[in-house]
Amino acid sequence: MTSSPVSEAVAERRPSLSVVIPMYQEIDNVEPMVARVQEGLAAYRGPWELICVDDGSRDGTGERLSEVAERTGPHLRVIRLRRNFGQTAAMQAGFDAARGELIATLDGDLQNDPADIPRMVDELLERDLDLLQGWRRRRQDDLVMRKIPSRIANKLIGKVTGVALHDYGCSLKVYRAEVIKEVTLLGEMHRFIPVWVAGVTAPQRIGETEVAHQARQFGVSKYGISRTFRVVLDLIAAFFFLRFGSRPGHFFGSIGILFGLLGGLMMTHLLVVKFVLGENIGDRPLLFVAILFLVASVQFLTTGVLSELLTRTFYASGERTHHRIRWQSDPDTAGWSETL
Ligand code: UDP
Ligand code: MG
């Protein structure tokens, strides 16, 4: 790091930090993971907490986490979900509980190195970013099943959303808490977090930096190739919400107006042919197309109004997450770990 005035100020004391780790069937990773975070953050000159979210594991991950928390102290907080809600929901539960000014996320399988976090925090502050995305330049995963599909996916996501990053899939990220707490994550949407963040902040406040990556040692990956389909659907949703998020009705409305105009033009043409030129229009395919377009335009406009209503109801309901917590460490006695 250069010794700019900013980095000196940063080096004196860093903001409070919450590290969030989703864990599903990771029993053998619990102890080494917590130990690695403690080591990696020993150099973090500021208060930090670790929030481990057990995503409904059936292998004892949750119990193991509670045991380890007893020994580790109140800066290790445990949240146990009632069932397996998926990585996105587990991360959302962690974000909701986080008390830090900054939040870092990483996977619970030791593939990411927590020792990267202090440096990432400095970089986020120096570059004045809201999100610093990790980039696994030397990724230790299978080439055909993982690296090639994800390279294609990253290019596609960048093109579709206009937020170009090399490695959307890397869980190691650092955020300003106030920004990530503005975002509501659903489905598989943790894969496009930068896109959602771009929806609430300026794209130039999102950056990326190279991070270390290791092959998985214990346990197995929770994902196969089948997730590609869900990811594609969520990509369409991400694009849609980024462009039309606050007014989904406008999307359907514009298609409706376009179809209505096209249909109207065709109809006018046909009416002129029939009544002004006096020709028979009964056998013209154009007539079917015109009617189809006019009917479709009404459908699109109706869908638009409906989606507006739904969006309003959704935001008014206040029920924006769907995971349920079975048990969590008492938030009132949660502590900070600090090395100064
Ligand atoms: N994970 C989770 N809930 C799930 C699936 C995964 O909390 O339903 C966690 C998992 O324990 C790990 C992280 O999400 O900490 C990433 O999962 P995994 O390592 O299986 O994915 P990969 O690295 O293979 O993409
Ligand atoms: Mg992994």
From TrEMBL:
<keyword id="KW-0472">Membrane</keyword>
<keyword id="KW-1133">Transmembrane helix</keyword>
<protein>
    <submittedName>
        <fullName>Glycosyl transferase, family 2</fullName>
    </submittedName>
</protein>
<keyword id="KW-0328">Glycosyltransferase</keyword>
<dbReference type="InterPro" id="IPR001173">
    <property type="entry name" value="Glyco_trans_2-like"/>
</dbReference>
<keyword id="KW-0448">Lipopolysaccharide biosynthesis</keyword>
<dbReference type="Pfam" id="PF00535">
    <property type="entry name" value="Glycos_transf_2"/>
</dbReference>
<dbReference type="GO" id="GO:0016757">
    <property type="term" value="F:glycosyltransferase activity"/>
</dbReference>
<dbReference type="InterPro" id="IPR029044">
    <property type="entry name" value="Nucleotide-diphossugar_trans"/>
</dbReference>
<dbReference type="GO" id="GO:0009103">
    <property type="term" value="P:lipopolysaccharide biosynthetic process"/>
</dbReference>
<feature type="transmembrane region" description="Helical">
    <location>
        <begin position="285"/>
        <end position="306"/>
    </location>
</feature>
<dbReference type="GO" id="GO:0005886">
    <property type="term" value="C:plasma membrane"/>
</dbReference>
<keyword id="KW-1003">Cell membrane</keyword>
<keyword id="KW-0808">Transferase</keyword>
<feature type="transmembrane region" description="Helical">
    <location>
        <begin position="251"/>
        <end position="273"/>
    </location>
</feature>
<keyword id="KW-0812">Transmembrane</keyword>
<dbReference type="InterPro" id="IPR050256">
    <property type="entry name" value="Glycosyltransferase_2"/>
</dbReference>
<feature type="domain" description="Glycosyltransferase 2-like">
    <location>
        <begin position="18"/>
        <end position="183"/>
    </location>
</feature>
